[in-house]
Amino acid sequence: MKNFDVIVIGAGAAGLLAAGRAAECGGKVLVLEKMRRAGRKLLITGKGRCNITNNAPVSEFIKHIQPNGKFLRNAFSQFFSKDIIALLQKHGTEVTLERGGRYFPTSNKSTDVLNALLKWVSDLNVEIHGGEKVEKIAVEDNQVRGVISNGKFIQADRVILATGGKSYPATGSTGDGYELAKQVGHSLVPDRPALVPIETEGDVAQKLQGLNLKNAKAVVWVNGKKAGEDFGEMVFTHFGLSGPVILTLSRIVVDELQKKNKVEITIDLKPALDEQKLDNRLIRDLNEHGKKKLGNIIRHWLPSSMIPVFIELLEIDPEKECHQVTAAERKKIRYLLKNLRFEITGHRSYKEAIITAGGIPTKEIYPKSLESKFIKGLYFAGEIIDLDAKTGGYNLQIAWSTGWVAGNACMNAD
Questions:
Q1: What is the distance between the alpha carbons of residues 149 and 100, in angstroms, rounded to a whole number?
Q2: For residue 251, what is the domain's CATH number?
Q3: Which in 5, 204, 245, 287 has the greatest CB count within 10 A?
């Protein structure tokens, strides 16, 4: 086997950026990918459309990244959203800005993003070998010497570990990189699913299955105390709750469930109205439709598919005429509109998690170069690092930025 300057382990978003940048800097680069094809996970991001990045400024990005977004300040200063957009456009993929500051390929096809990256690295003579499972990083005197893959030794004094986490394991993300890092002395922040749908007690969510709320406010309660909230889109499923708002809050939910705490989520169905304004609206509607049955005017407040479930939870006779609704009953209606409550029993598995929380602690990595503080010539990029963010293109930007920085630094090290 011929020698290489750099070996990148993993041909996902971070790995391809690392490989391309290292090659741009003059490196002879080999990418080892255990799956037969590169970029399997990239193809399913954004529901197959690939949410490339977000137009938020660096300060906003950092706020949305856990547990230590400031670690990425240096990486973002070297390579950020405008840079990945320019790279993709240069290789034939136009992008479009959508609501929420999210960038997608104009074609709405993630394959175009992957093909642009593969063209880039191919033009730079990067070699990508599929079906290569790396068993060990060879280290001597705390310096990388190469890797052992499929039983054979491949020499290189720089290795970039970009194997991803454990989410969507069918794409090849099965936590292999964690073991490789532990073998050479790194510790691991326990991994767990993040941006993952939530399972709920009872059958209310199941009865509302398929209903999508565009403007809902969700609040997480831990042992009765408010622990987080978000506003936006959510969906009810046969097992519980999903959609962008729920996925964002799931990081809190997963962590608190692991601590055996009682976790609940309330949904505010009328977030634009405070308690007083909502009460005034209810009084007006009940007075205007005094002779009508309560069950008939609930349609003014809720989507039609939600009405039977709402009436069931309300425990007020839907045949009751509106003018007969008491102040106590009106209060009950108001409360339910603002606090549709779900007890959380669990979360879905890595098969449905968009991203993995946990991984290599940032305290063990130099932020400027993403090189290991323990092993010279070992670099980290992407989801394997203990950094994760909300939906909206933030996680892919972490991959792009860390990949580029690791690729750049490994060829420009002192």
A1: 42
A2: 1.10.8.100
A3: 245
Number of H helices, E strands in the chain: 14, 21
Give the tokens for residue 279: 């009460």
What's the average pLDDT block by block, 10 residues per block, for the chain (414 residues)?
89 98 98 94 90 97 96 98 98 95 97 97 97 96 96 96 92 91 97 96 96 95 96 96 95 96 97 93 91 90 93 91 91 95 97 95 98 98 96 96 98 81
β partners of residue 147: 137, 154
**Kind of pairing, strands 127-130 and 29-33?**
parallel
Tokens 């055996």 correspond to what residue?
260
- Identify whether the C-beta of residue 410 lies closer than 8 Å to the C-beta of residue 378: no
Output the six-digit token pair for 363.
Answer: 């305290």
In the three-class reduction of DSSP (H, G, I as helix; E, B as strand; rest coil), residue 319 is classed as: coil
What is the pTM (predicted TM-score) of this model?
A: 0.92
pLDDT at 333: 94
Do 136 and 207 have their domain in common?
no
> Looking at the structure, do residues 333 and 321 belong to the same domain, yes or no?
yes
Q: CA angle, 78 as apex, 77 and 80 as ends, to 5°? A: 75
| Statement to judge: residues 66 and 176 lie in one domain | yes
Provide CB contacts within 8 A for 333, sequence distance 6+. 282, 314, 316, 325
Cα angle 218-219-220, degrees, rounded to a multiple of 5: 125
Q: pLDDT tens digits for 268-287?
A: 999 999 999 999 999 999 99
**For residue 190, cis peptide bond before it (omega within 30 degrees of 0):** no
Strand bridging mode 225-236 / 340-347: unpaired
Query: Helix or strand or coil: residue 140?
Result: strand
CB 109 within 8 A of CB 49: yes
Output DSSP code: residue 383.
Answer: G
How many structural domains comprise the chain? 2
Same domain as 137, residue 188: yes
What is the C-alpha R_g of the chain?
25
371, 408 in Cβ contact below 8 A? no
Residues in the chain: 414
